[in-house]
Amino acid sequence: xxxxxxxxxxxxxxxxxxxxxxxxxxxxxxxxxxxxxxxxxxxxxxxxxxxxxxxxxxxxxxxxxxxxxxxxxxxxxxxxxxxxxxxxxxxxxxxxxxxxxxxxxxxxxxxxxxxxxxxxxxxxxxxxxxxxxxxxxxxxxxxxxxxxxxxxxxxxxxxxxxxxxxxxxxxxxxxxxxxxxxxxxxxxxxxxxxxxxxxxxxxxxxxxxxxxxxxxxxx
Amino acid sequence: xxxxxxxxxxxxxxxxxxxxxxxxxxxxxxxxxxxxxxxxxxxxxxxxxxxxxxxxxxxxxxxxxxxxxxxxxxxxxxxxxxxxxxxxxxxxxxxxxxxxxxxxxxxxxxxxxxxxxxxxxxxxxxxxxxxxxxxxxxxxxxxxxxxxxxxxxxxxxxxxxxxxxxxxxxxxxxxxxxxxxxxxxxxxxxxxxxxxxxxxxxxxxxxxxxxxxxxxxxx
Lengths: 219, 219
Description:
2 copies of one chain form a homodimer.
Chain A: E1 12-14, H1 19-45, H2 50-67, E2 78-80, E3 86-87, E4 105-107, E5 113-119, H3 132-151, E6 155-164, E7 171-183, E8 186-195, E9 198-209
Parallel strand pairs in A: 1-2
Antiparallel strand pairs in A: 2-3, 4-5, 5-7, 6-9, 7-8, 8-9
């Protein structure tokens, strides 16, 4: 990637779009993203011959060309409207437009945050198991979200310590994160990852409230 | 995913394929994977209208149907031949057939291991920055590989502690991991992640040699 193409840090795009129009746009893109996710998984598992590969590539390039006729540059960033809505559909863990994201789906609970996802072929590390790095990603994302909700603003990861307790088999998994202690703008967050085999990994992290989101007296 | 479809743990597939045939197969699939990666990124950045989205989806589904006419189930797992070659092309960090992988590319160095990757729109967390979980993934993967090389066999992550030092902007990044100390089958591995801004994150991890890869006297 050349320097000119480097994504803009802290990219923020303001759009004049109503909540209803945004919901329509989301409904337009989510099915495409799901189909790209399926394609990623099928490409891993496919054993078709070279003629089929060549034909599939023609279609992939055709889709690429169509979608590429009007594109933003760099990365999605954070989009906002003047009603206070914000959407980061490019997020690598949860993004509605990002086929790298499993996606992690947040489920409302009273105590902290819960994320669910179904990890298929695209997330493999040790054979048949979730990549240890994806385990870290889930724990980080869920913990950061728990701190965000507690602090009422975005947080950054300071440190994260992960204990891998047993292999995490591919398939459905659940993360549960909660703030254990808070001092001023710093949050100690614990998180577990579980499958039907029980808790497979756990973490403890220190998350720090973004400076601009702090109240003056707490700075 | 139903229980019957759950990927097989420790999946290992033995194939009667020569090294030359394997190289041909790799050359067949890598360009397709790269095109799927491009498609993932373009889907995030695309701003085309609903007619174009519908047309692109037709092509994506056509590619899906072609690749899906002959597929393995579950996940890729570890493939081996009787010449001692092993390939895990589904790996979420490095896999030749996996468009979720950036991919991380290993570069030979004398001291430990070095991985390079160029992180585009698919890996975003904070706007314009690499997702903190992907930072963890890279540190975990590079550290595990360093332990693998030192121990001459696969290792599992025991614990991993990550310090996030400054934002990691999207774009080119380099990981460098090295074994600091070794006691029997346990390795303490340090790793740094750097961009043109300098070191952005570092980790210390304990990695444990797979039981079956240990020498009897070390067990």
